[in-house]
Structures
1.
Amino acid sequence: MMSTTSVVESDSELLVEKRDGVAIVLLNRPDQRNPLGRAFSEKMLRILDDLERDQEVFAIVLSGNGPAFCAGAEVGEVVSVEPMDIEFQFRLVRDFNKVSTRLRQLELPVIAAVNGVSVGGGAALALACDIIIGAEEASLYFAFGRIGACGADMGCAYTLPRLVGSMRARYLMLTGAHVKADEAEKLGIFLEVLPRDALLARAEEIARQVISANPRRAAAATKMALVRGEETSWEVSLAYEGYVQSYLFQTEDHHSRLSAFVKGKG
């Protein structure tokens, strides 16, 4: 395990801190409510790649610095009241989608700690994570249609129905709902709601529960099996599980943990 180290400079758009196997990634433009700007995707994808390669990182916590989690697409940079080049905007949207895809495909479990308001693409960013907890002040604002845009943004039209059901997802997205923390918990979007000052500590605690329960490769296999279970047939899902389970049965992590379990120490 490693000691706490900063891996991104303190004035960056994104902060990364490693705490004994848990990487804390913070959106870091609090004065603008942490919007998704033009440089966000490139920076986030690089960070996720680096963390996945780091064998001393076992889980990630994603949160926002300041009172907001993420304000969504930056006005004037990504969306504008003035006409923008359609190809340029398409590339930006495509790159934001790559971040959602990377979060789902990442071998490391990602816990979103939604510390405040999360608008549009910000809500979709949280939904792309594996586990979501929220502060009492947190909310998800499905504002796409209110600005004349489509609700199918950064995978939101895929992830939300799988959390709340198809009809309820239609209602939330078509009405441009502003879902407060207590309702998000009742809907099953937030696992828990906590005071803001306890949020990051709880997210890190969940990350450590994952680390304690799983070797790094086993956690990755479980996450990938769950993602495939959402996307494929029963037969394909079972086939994947069969091969990956057979592989894991041959690992040293399995042998050592099984031995401890048999001896009553697991």
Note: The longest strand covers residues 14-19.
2.
Amino acid sequence: MKLLIEIKDSKVDFILELLKNFSFVKVSPLTKEKAEQMEDLKDSVDYVNEAKAGYKKSRSAKDFLDEL
């Protein structure tokens, strides 16, 4: 299982050291850019799910392309 967690900058060293002591945990820090991309992707997926559930208004790809 993969998890994405946010940690205060002041606690990063402590948490990384703690996690490295568990043999069953692999730590792979993300760059700021990669973290932002993942957050944007998560927001997009959330929007699509809300649109499918009827909470947000959406339009078809055809309508979008016709507008261009």
Note: The chain has a mean pLDDT of 89.
3.
Amino acid sequence: MYLQNIYTYPIKSLGGIRLDEAVVEERGLQYDRRWMLVDEKGRFMSQRKHPEMALLQVEIRNDGLFVFHKQKPDIEILIPFEPGTDKLIPVEIWDDRVEAQLVDPEVSRWFTDQLGMDCNLVFMPSAIQRKVDPAYAVNEETVSFADGMPYLLIGQASLDDLNTRLESPVPMNRFRPNLVIAGAQPYEEDDWREVVVGESVFRLVKPCARCVITTTDQEKGVSGKEPLKTLASYRTVDNKVLFGQNMVLIKGEKIRTGESVSFR
């Protein structure tokens, strides 16, 4: 088995980035979901309600995040890594309430124009501590603006099996994983306790319950019924449709595609 793909999503629910290597940190991959769009009440925004967010693609550059519209590449903006304000505002991610740093009013206006609704881009400074649910934490880990866990792993064979059941196969980007493993059996990751990638060790803590984001075409920004409908027919447990495994980092500094993977 080996690490086939690494993906990061610097701005929550916007287009993801495939990497050849990545720094691993307690709250997730470096830069992963450290930025987030919130509405006028400070609540997080996602493709669940706004599938058109998929059309905004992010790139990591030396001087910041470069964001552009997939269908209109001339619509673009560069967001420096360092926020332009020191202002902290309260934000909500599901049941969590934390403070976040307002990036820049001009940047927020750009996103407001693209999405057609008032919103603000916020950043999570290292001083902000959003704790992983104690029911799943191993060492009282913190997490980024991700839904709840720092890392998500999926086996390529699991997607391949799902695609044999669909009329139209779907790509891995529907599921927004961080790590994709090749060489395992379909759904083998369901039974792993820990996974070792090169010299990094991750603890698998809970299956990932899937939502309607999996039905959003990441290139068109529109939603349908699949693959969630088919997944629900054979991957439902306690009224939750499960696909992939959530993880926390036990130890490690960097991961690279092609590195050997083992489990225990």
Note: Residues 36 and 250 are 26 Å apart (CA to CA).
